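Sample intake sheet
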Amino acid sequence: VQLQASGGGWVQPGGSLRVSCTSSGSIYDFSAMGWYRQFPGKEREMVAGVAIHGSPSHYEESVKGRFSIFRDYGRNGIQMQMDNLRVEDTAIYFCYADQGPDKLFGQGTLVTVSS
């Protein structure tokens, strides 16, 4: 199974971006999908996640109210709408999927927020 992330780019502070993640396999085989991000020189941190078979989504505290993650069954993946972006949101964003005991990661997509 491969996860393909897309939608990163550059935006000014206060702007919006949407990142998408599609799976080469069925997302119904996953218990959850979501996003991590990685700042230069830091470990990856969870940003948001959503259960594939129900239950609410969850968010890292600093993105609550600004980011929204949702399932996209038609495109076999997930999307995350990022609004009111801040300079400190600049990072590489990695899509993940929980498949049994394994956490799968796709390649990252760079999000840059600057003026």
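Comment: Residues 94 and 107 are 6 Å apart (CA to CA). The first strand starts at residue 3 and ends at 6.
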